[in-house]
Design a protein that fits this description.
The strands form 2 sheets. Strands 5-9-8-7-6 form a 5-stranded antiparallel β-sheet. A 4-stranded antiparallel β-sheet has the order 1-2-3-4, with helices on one face. Helix 1 packs across helix 3. It is 39% helix and 21% strand. By secondary structure, the protein is α+β, with helices and mostly antiparallel strands. It has 2 domains: 83 residues, no CATH class; 112 residues.
Length: 218
């Protein structure tokens, strides 16, 4: 029931954001986020390797190029990126865990349970599958962890996924790093859904079931 309530809340939130999009100044939006492409009837951008279209007349977000339906998380992430991105927003070039982001500390315990623990459990014993999924999503290999890749959540927002597999002493562990100024681009709650969407996309590419108590169901 709780998962259903969370999903219902996100469906309403996404519907509200769709209406809010219609009030946005598209010229300013294109200036703030050069990765957005104006394709006539819609805007487009790529989120974790999936090309998405935003209809100018309705604000609806749809998959492009024959790709699969978008999750609630993906839609929420796109709308809030559009709304909260500052002009200009500069990366700090310093990578930090979620709890170190501005305004994130109150959410850190829930983030550990519903994001990092899920990441660790899903890919425990599956390092090759994880590495392959990262490559499919355009990841850049990093010299960190048993598996470490930097993935483009958006062109303006790379995210680092780090994973250490279980051994005789410790269970599988993981971390996800963000640029220190990530909350200048997007609301802190969207950082959680960006991480969750990344894990979901990696699991799908790896053909693995998600394990653990997820933040919210698709």
């Amino acid at each position: 029931m709780k998962s259903d309530m969370k999903t219902d809340n996100y469906e309403k939130t996404v519907s509200d954001w769709q209406e809010r999009f219609l009030s946005m100044d598209l010229e300013k939006l294109l200036h703030k986020l050069p990765e957005i492409r104006d394709e006539g009837a819609c805007l487009s951008l790529v989120h974790f390797g999936q090309k998405c279209g935003i209809e100018k007349s309705t604000g609806k977000i749809v998959p492009l190029d024959g790709q699969e339906a978008l999750s609630l998380w993906a839609k929420f992430n796109i709308y809030t990126l559009f709304w909260y991105c500052t002009d200009p927003a500069y990366p700090a070039g310093k990578w930090v865990p979620f709890k170190s982001l501005k305004g994130a500390s109150p959410f850190a315990p829930a983030y550990q349970k519903t994001v990092l623990d899920v990441f660790s459990r899903t890919f425990a014993g599956q390092t090759e599958a994880l590495a392959g999924a990262c490559r499919k999503l355009g990841g850049k290999k990093l010299p960190h962890g048993d598996i470490g890749y930097e993935l483009p959540a958006f062109d303006c927002m790379p995210v680092r996924f780090l994973f250490w597999d279980a051994d005789d002493e410790f269970p599988a562990q993981s971390n996800i790093l963000f640029d220190k100024n990530a909350t200048d681009l997007i609301h802190v709650e969207s950082i959680v859904t960006i991480a969750s969407e990344g894990i979901s996309r990696l699991a799908k590419e790896a053909e693995l079931p998600i394990k653990g108590d997820r933040f919210v169901q698709n």
